[in-house]
């Protein structure tokens, strides 16, 4: 099984496990449901990667970081449950599972599973999104829409589309249901690694808000900001986002 296939398989199967957890704990509290989802998906992914790629290192949101990771040759960057808040709400579909592989300075494979949407987006073959004739749609947090997204909306004459997890937001751009995702104010590598790998495979523009490259497998895994958008909108978005949070 290739690295691309493994990423897609594990993201999909972790998503199936999460759907089972959701059903199993349907009558439990949202807190218990979220905690069980995070833990069980993490344990599944770590065990499966250890079996399939025993020589590789794993960086997981739910795991303890390995001090040797920054010097490892191959690192799987995973978010076992992206959008824990949305997962805890039974009717929401905007949560995801992220599985990405970093090797020799680059993201080389990635998959974003959207279990409640019965979809998995995975490298290497991701269709480019179809063009949309309407105003640019900028996906934002449904609870914490950043000021920078509002500035981009105003500059582009666009509209804001509230949505849950980072993976769901990038997936919406990949699927052609949105046009821009711009974020500033705090994330980690596991929040964006797999979505960025998938977005790049679809031909989308990906960068930090100042236009500089997104770098992964750094000693400090914080990656506070990013832009994912249609390539024809990149210059206009970066002209605003490059000013930083406003």
From TrEMBL:
Taxonomic superkingdom: Bacteria
Pfam families: Inositol_P
CDD domains to which the protein is assigned, alphabetical: CysQ
Name recorded for this polypeptide: 3'(2'),5'-bisphosphate nucleotidase CysQ
Species this chain originates from: Skermania pinensis
């Amino acid at each position: 099984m290739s690295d691309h296939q493994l990423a897609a398989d594990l993201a999909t199967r972790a998503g199936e496990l999460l759907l089972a957890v959701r059903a199993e704990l349907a009558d439990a509290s949202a807190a218990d449901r979220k905690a069980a989802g995070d833990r069980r998906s993490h344990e599944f992914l770590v065990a499966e990667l250890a079996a399939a790629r025993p020589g590789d290192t794993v960086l997981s949101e739910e795991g303890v970081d390995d001090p040797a990771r920054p010097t490892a040759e191959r690192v799987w960057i995973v978010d076992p449950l992206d959008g824990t808040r949305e997962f805890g709400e039974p009717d929401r579909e905007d949560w995801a599972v992220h599985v990405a592989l970093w090797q020799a300075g680059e993201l080389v494979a990635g998959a974003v599973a959207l279990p409640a949407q019965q979809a998995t987006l995975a490298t290497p073959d991701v269709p480019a999104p179809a063009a949309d004739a309407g105003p640019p749609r900028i996906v934002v947090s449904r609870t914490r829409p950043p000021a920078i997204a509002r500035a981009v909306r105003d500059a582009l004459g666009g509209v804001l589309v509230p949505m849950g997890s980072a993976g769901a937001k990038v997936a919406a751009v990949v699927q052609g249901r949105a046009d821009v995702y711009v974020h500033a104010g705090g994330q980690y590598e596991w929040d964006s690694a797999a979505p960025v790998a998938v977005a790049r495979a679809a031909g989308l523009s990906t960068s930090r808000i100042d236009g500089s490259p997104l770098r992964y497998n750094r000693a400090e895994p914080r990656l506070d900001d990013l832009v994912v958008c249609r390539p024809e909108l990149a210059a206009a978005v970066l002209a605003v986002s490059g000013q930083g949070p406003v």
